[in-house]
Amino acid sequence: MKKVLQILKWGMLLSLMVVVLSFTNQMQNKQMVFLNQINIEVSEDKFMTEQVALKYIEEQDFNFDSVALSNFYMNELEIAFLRHPAIKNAEVYSNQEGVININLQQRKAVVRIKTDNADYYLDEQGMKMPLSSEYTPRVLVVTGEVNESKHLSVFSFIEIINKDIFWKSQITQVHFSNNEVIIIPRVGSQKIHFGTLTDVNKKLGNLYQFYKQAMPVKGWQTYSEISLAYNNQIICTKK
Asked: Which domains does the chain have, with CATH numbers?
């Protein structure tokens, strides 16, 4: 008798689940979707805005007008956003009332690489990132003879620069010429010959001491060139 009651109990539960699922499916077939909110994680960069996101949704042929929840492809919309060059992470979700919410996280550009043949950013992961027609961030520019084999050393250099308020403000451009690095400062008109991107902290430390001790005495416009290429030496060329 006990077994019969258990079988009946489970049978009723299964029947109830089937009814609930059937009802839910019917409701989803009737429930229309609508876009409630596009949440973009706060960032210094503005590659993606709500207006840009809405335009992108339209370009990807996703329609919210008179579309049932059961016929709306949320996973495909999420994948479409992940294909966008400015997006790092995307999440698209809904509730049973058909309310669609979109959460987006932008990639962050840390340096711009500009050569005769290419123009692009490296993001915070050191990955290539195309330029945007919507937004141009203020980042250090690397020019000259730069190819992908130099990305790692460039990225490591930029990480050091961006962690220091003084250097982040002072260094505006890094130029590669014949395997030598030339730094263009914001204050002072001199070119700074850095040599290769090795012993970076040591060279920057020497340059900082030179700025602190010599420049106030000699003046910021005295020299046309400063060389850090030689070990523990700073060689200056007067104008």
From this structure: 31-106 (3.10.20), 109-238 (3.40.50.11690)
